[in-house]
Amino acid sequence: MRARGAVSAALASAGILLAGWQAGTQVAEIRSSAEATSAGTATGGTGTSGAGGSTSGSSGTSGAAGSAGAGSASATTYDGAAVATRFGSVQVQITVKAGVITEVTALQLTDEDRKSVQISNRAAPLLRSEVLAAQSAKVKSISGATVTSNAYLTSLQAAIDAANL
Amino acid sequence: MTTQLRPGAPAHNHSGHRGPGAVAPHAPSRAGMFARQHRGRLFRTDALTVIAWGSVAAAVALWLADGGATVISSPASAFTAVGIVTGLAGMDLVLLMLLLAARIPVIDRTFGHDRALEFHRRLGKPSLYLLLAHGLLVATGYGMAEGLDPVSESVALWVLVPDMWLAFVSMALFITVVVTSLVAVRRRFPYEFWYAVHLLTYAAVGISLPHQFSVGGLFAEGTWQRWYWLAICITTGAALLYFRVLQPIAATVRHQLTVSRVTSVAPGVVNIEMSGYQLDRLAGHGGRFFTWRFLAPGLWWHPHPFSLSAEPLAPGPGGESKLRITVRNLGEGSGRLMRLRPGTRVAVEGPYGMFGTTARTRDKVVMIGAGVGIAPLRALLESTPFSPGNATILLRGHSETELYLGSEILELCEDRGARLFHLTGPRVRQETNWLPEDAVRAGYTLASYVPDIADSDVYICGPAAWAGNVISAARAAGVGADQIHHERFDW
Asked: Which helix (H) or strand (E) holds B196?
């Protein structure tokens, strides 16, 4: 290799790598601030639902609000075990009311990289509705999201066991 | 018209009509005839070097730009991250290898066909190591994240993750291709076996793509990294399809070559003359060698690389003309060519290589050939520009009958004013010398035949070991590396 070619190749490669690194740190900053924001939204969400409850209470539809209150009093949540996968941990929480699973919430989903986040976002709602319909962890895994599905259902089974259903 | 066995006074040495003094007045006007071409080629060399290394850097940089390095938080994620980087770099090298073997004209006219394939060969092992490291590191990293050993993790990946089993098959194919290409292994099998296995590379690359785009987080939908990789994969595929399949088919259809005559030159050496259309399009290009397939039973699947031994004749009234190659019986493959029947149709690919006027850097030219390696020099001598007195031809063989096409070359030298030396006789026991024994004993070196060799382009064609010795002798005589033009014909 000629000297001029070697030096230009080295400089160009170093420049490209530096630019990539620079862009990467910016992406990381944006992501961490985005995470902070989404965490904030989540807290805000909880706050809003609480506020919503008080609003509905104050609006005077007392019967409905009362039964909802009674219902929420008897509903219990159970956390499943956190299952580690190569794409991140998965943990679900179920809400049980009178022996019936009324809600499945994903506390953690595979989120190692953008691809995993995509898969999780697609698989989680499907799994939730299947589980609510079947009332058990014995449902088919979502194709293209086998790892996430299996972890989801394993965690779910642990939660169901904990609820003694 | 004298052919010299040993150096004498240069003025009496040339076979042409005029001495070097006669052309001196023309020299300044033609000085630097090839300087621009040479600068252009050096620039292309550097530019392609920058692109090649830059593409590897870009593969890593795109991963960095995605925040790849910032997610490393544990040993497991570190393993996975390094695994991803090695996979990306390995894929980039594989694509570079494919491009180097794609017969792309700009690469061919910059590095030459044989050097491009040499780079291709040298990238083989590094890319395999990178891909193996990719597999091992990612399996380890994923396994650590999940509390599994790399083997069970690999099994889990194969079974659970879509497209991953294809990636495992692809890895096995890559290993097969590289192992069969190792020199030691390659020698044990016929060329065709190696070639067939080598075709599996396309399968290996093809089935490795799905997992990159379906499992790789970097290639997720909507990212511009995905578009970049898609673009370079498609470009590489298109280049291969066009230059290795479509163009040869088009050339074969356009030229409609058929064997017109097979004549004996010497024992075991024949001229194969072919006639066809628009053959002037095959001349004048940089490359001098073609891959021929003689479409006869038992022969059609065997590609033969041979240079032209005579420039194509000017087309006749119907656009038809002739070209010629000279073939020596070196083995089973070329042995069958001795008995080719006239009328056999011929498929042609090319021209390839740098062994022609496109490689010239100086006004003076020296051609050194041995055995059947003399044949390509014969065509070059016919066409490459030089002033009378500026060219020297050295032909080496055990005896005069081994100086194939010697009489044609003598005629050309007389016409164009080139010096010609016949160097015949047994070789020296000492293996590093390329001259006949008596010349060595008389103390002659390359500079005794060509005093101004340091300011000449030197074309060398002959058996690999002999050519290597000539190259060392030329370097020792002060010839720069970019003035030496050597084409391997024993691939």
From this structure: helix B191-214
A98 to chain B nearest CA, in Å?
35
The domain defined by B257-352 folds into Elongation Factor Tu (Ef-tu); domain 3 (2.40.30)
Fold for the domain defined by B47-250: Four Helix Bundle (Hemerythrin (Met), subunit A) (1.20.120)
Q: Cβ contacts (< 8 Å) between A150 and chain B: which residues? A: 160
Residue of A114, A146, A152 to mutate for B, most B C-beta atoms under 10 A: A114
In sequence order, which residues have a C-beta less than 8 Å from that of residue B469 and are 6 or more positions away?
Answer: B431, B432, B433, B434
Do B2-30+360-485 and B257-352 have matching folds?
no
Query: Tell me: the pLDDT tens digits for B283-329?
Result: 655 557 888 999 988 888 888 888 888 888 878 788 888 989 998 88
Asked if the model's pLDDT at residue A58 lies above 70, the reply is: no
Q: Which residues from A are below 8 Å from B52, CB to CB?
A: 9
Domain segments of chain B as ranges: 2-30+360-485, 47-250, 257-352
In this prediction, residue B13 carries a pLDDT of 39
Minimum CA–CA partner of B220 in chain A: A115
pLDDT on residue B262: 92
- In the three-class reduction of DSSP (H, G, I as helix; E, B as strand; rest coil), residue B432 is classed as coil
What is the rounded CA–CA span in Å between residue B342 and residue B340?
Answer: 7
CATH architecture, domain defined by B2-30+360-485: 3-Layer(aba) Sandwich (3.40)
Across the interface, do A84 and B70 touch by the CB < 8 Å criterion? Answer: no
Mean per-residue pLDDT, B220-224: 75
Alpha carbon of A44: minimum distance to chain B alpha carbons (Å): 27
CA B260 distance to own-chain centroid = 28
Q: pLDDT of B102-160, one tens digit each? A: 999 899 888 888 889 889 999 999 999 999 999 999 999 888 887 888 888 888 888 87
Distance separating alpha carbons of residues B119 and B77, to the nearest angstrom: 34
A5 in contact with B at a CB cutoff of 8 Å? yes
Chain A contact for B332 (CB, 8 A cutoff)? no
Q: Does A93 touch chain B (CB under 8 A)?
A: no
Query: How confident is residue B23, by pLDDT bands cut at 50, 70 and 90?
Result: very low
Nearest to B241 by CA among B103, B360, B137: B103
Give the gap in angstroms from C-alpha A136 to the nearest C-alpha of chain B.
22
Q: Place B248 in a pLDDT band, splitting at 50, 70 and 90.
A: very high
